[in-house]
Design a protein that fits this description.
With 131 residues, the chain is mainly α. The protein contains three helices and two strands, in the order αααββ.
Length: 131
């Protein structure tokens, strides 16, 4: 009976791991998945994994899971959590590089010589551009 429970838990954990990564992305591949939605899937997965770790701790404290099962499931969940967090870090580094390139491109553009005009209460006044 205990091996059946472990099998069910392992199958559920495997499904929770693989479904967000492969299940939904196949259906969206033709529609063009945006990077922000992919990041959101990863963020949701990270939260799910952290919650699963917390639940494992609670199950262990209650004695509803053996120490061997706890160690195995904890290692599997921690390994996937690390992978998800590394992917998120890699994506954030890529976004930072892209942002730096955009900032450099804007800085290379010539600035207008004439000061801009703004209106305050219908009265125009010059505005200096701060760089």
């Amino acid at each position: 009976m205990a091996s059946f429970v472990v099998f069910v838990l392992a199958a559920a954990l495997l499904w929770m791991i693989l479904y967000p990564l492969f299940g939904r992305s196949k259906g969206r591949a033709g529609s063009g998945t945006s990077p922000s939605s992919a990041v959101q899937v990863l963020l949701d997965r990270r939260e799910t994994l952290l919650q699963a770790l917390h639940e494992l701790e609670n199950d262990r404290a209650l004695g509803s899971i053996t120490d061997d099962d706890y160690q195995r499931l904890r290692l599997e969940t921690e390994d996937e959590t690390i992978v998800v967090m590394r992917v998120l870090d890699d994506r954030s580094l890529g976004l930072a590089d892209e942002l730096e390139r955009e900032i450099a491109a804007v800085r290379e553009q010539p600035t207008p010589v004439e000061p801009a005009q703004a209106q305050l209460g219908g009265v125009p006044f010059p505005v200096k551009r701060v760089r």
